[in-house]
Amino acid sequence: MASSQGRLGQQALAVLDVALRVPCIFIIDAIFNSYYEPGPGWAGTAGSALFRVVGVLVSSVVLLLSQKALFKFYTLFLAVVLGAAAVLVNYHATSHTDFSSARYKVALGWRNGPTLWLGLATVQLAFGVAYVFLLGLRSSLAALVVLDVMVPVWGLMMELPPDVRRLVAAFSGAALALNTAACLAARLKWFYYSCRYVYLLVRHMYRMYGLQLLLKDTWKRIRFPDVLRVFWLTRVTAQALILIYVMQAVRRESGDATGGYPDRNSDTQGYLLSWDVLWDVTSNLIISGCDSTLTVLGMSAVISSVAHYLGLSILTFIGSTEEEDKRLGFVAPVLFFILALQTGLSGLDPEERLVRLSRNMCLLLTAILHFIQGMTDPVLMSLSASHVSSFRRHFPVLLVSAALFVLPVVLSHALWHHYAINTWLFAVTAFCVELCLKVLVSLTVYGLFMADGLSDVLWEKLDDYVYYVRSTGNIIEFLFGVVMFGNGAYTMMFESGSKIRACMMCLHAYFNIYLQARNGWKTFINRRTAVKRINSLPELRGDRLRRIEDVCAICYQEFATSARITPCHHYFHALCLRKWLYIQDSCPMCHQKVNVDDDARDRDVFSNNNGGYAPPPPEAPAAPPPVENPPADAQPVNRAAPAVAAPGTLAAVAGGLHHELLEDNDSIEYDDDDWVVQNGGTPVEEEYMNDDTDSTDD
């Protein structure tokens, strides 16, 4: 119970912290978006600029305050506001109100009582008590402050002459102003030390951890996404209420002008719920919701929240637990903000801004669908590789994959039906076609793995088929990347060029063209080299294979048709050894280099994986050479220590398949140094060789 109350208290403080920071964003937004008519001469221009700078600086400082300092600042600010309100009420009452005629016959039980000054006295007493409480004044001084606030009201009660009442109100206001100034001056020392502490803390964090960690810590400490989200929603809600009120007023005026008196209920239902009015209100709200950089940031924060919960829902539906797949709430707002900056969204005219925003939303939708496909692909590969037969596990992922194929088709058809061909429509269509291609590749590989799971024998060509399918998809995606680079270059040169667009094109050329081409070529070279080495190794078949009476030390399965012998006299399945050679050029058992020389080709002697040597075949003309001493760093060879884990762990291996540049799970390469660093310098054949194509039936 106590812990739940503590959590509720912390949540209430967090909500209050966010609510108190939102006005700073409103002030900064108003300063940047408001037009001030400068006064005559340079003095007016300098004064306007100074006002803007001071306003932005003070608002930024308040926005970055710690929670404790923020609460204290607002306490002092509210006290000053209450004191100013008390002074203004006294001045207005003593200068513009005639209390001798302000009487009401029935008020609070008294007949012919002066109700106006009684209500005024209550309000001033509340102001005085709240002012004293917020400033934390001592009891004696607090009584004097409350008395000072109430003195002008007593002058009204005694019906003093107007000049005397105004003089009393002036002295009362001056005394309250002096007290406020003294209280604030007494806290200047606290303000100085607070600013110094913040400065030293920021400098220490910058020197110790760098600027990136400092910005990240500040971002989380002030809950900036929540602040932006509340700012944007509050702004849009207020504008919606104002628009609805204005439309209702215009409707009534138009009815009065025609001499009609429409019913209020029918007017409200017929006017406010019509589709034309709803579209006008929504479009105006959307246009005004991205008219500045801060409002674009606020809309990005709202998109972040929506995308975050959408990603969590999809992950829960498909049964994925990958932490990296929960980044949709970060990727979506970043893409939206980059698109807004790239197209200059906030600086466009209202009508053009609405069109540009809708186009950006279409591009963002395709990017989100691509990310969701990256979330579903590892789950598909995991289920197919681990041969899970539960329909309940397969159906959600297949349903999401089908939706990812249908949605781009529907979107492209709708856009081509309503818009003429242009560079934007071409880009959206290319992204949709690329997404459909990715889905087809994932489903094809999924089908191959499922077919392998239903088969009773080892499908040796499965690895090649998976590589061919994924390579074809990667080549087409690479071509799409080149075409999109050309489309972006045309847009930058002939439509809307900008520095941000140029930077994004450079990033696209590096990540989506250069890196993808380099990794694809490296994969191809590694596979070709591995195939050449496998084909150069001696092969055992027939009676010679049956005399081994052992299993492959990689997949831990018996040799059905053939086996390959390494120069160090260890033998494996050709498929298993080839996949090992994708990683490094060494024997999985003793880690000697797999280099075939002429002497090894001429030898007919072979050993089993237990360290012993089988007798030579009867037809062998040459006697077996003496046993060579194994190298000092070779690990003991034991059939009880296979180089593969159980098939149930294939889901963990297949979980890394969502990487776009390394989609072929049989084509992951590491340098020798990277392999040692990744695995702590110890041989870890089990970590890799448990691949999708090595799964067997239990």
Automatic annotation (TrEMBL):
Amino acid composition bias (Pro residues), ranges on this chain: 614-629
Sequence ranges assigned to domain RING-type in this UniProt record: 552-591
Any Pfam family matching the protein: TRC8_N
GO BP terms: ERAD pathway; proteasome-mediated ubiquitin-dependent protein catabolic process
Keywords per UniProt: Endoplasmic reticulum, Membrane, Metal-binding, Transmembrane, Transmembrane helix, Zinc, Zinc-finger
Biased amino acid composition, Acidic residues: 664-675, 684-698
Subcellular location: Endoplasmic reticulum membrane
InterPro entries: HRD1_E3_ubiq-ligases, TRC8_N_dom, Znf_RING, Znf_RING-CH, Znf_RING/FYVE/PHD
Domain of life of the organism encoding this protein: Eukaryota
Chief subcellular location: endoplasmic reticulum
Metal-binding is among the record's keywords: yes
GO cellular component entries: Derlin-1 retrotranslocation complex
Residue ranges crossing the lipid bilayer per the database entry: 12-36, 42-66, 73-94, 114-134, 141-158, 164-185, 294-318, 330-348, 360-376, 396-416, 423-449, 475-494
Keyword Hydrolase part of the UniProt annotation: no
Annotated region (Disordered), positions in chain: 601-638, 664-698
Membrane topology: Multi-pass membrane protein
GO MF, one example: zinc ion binding
Protein name, UniProt field: E3 ubiquitin-protein ligase RNF139
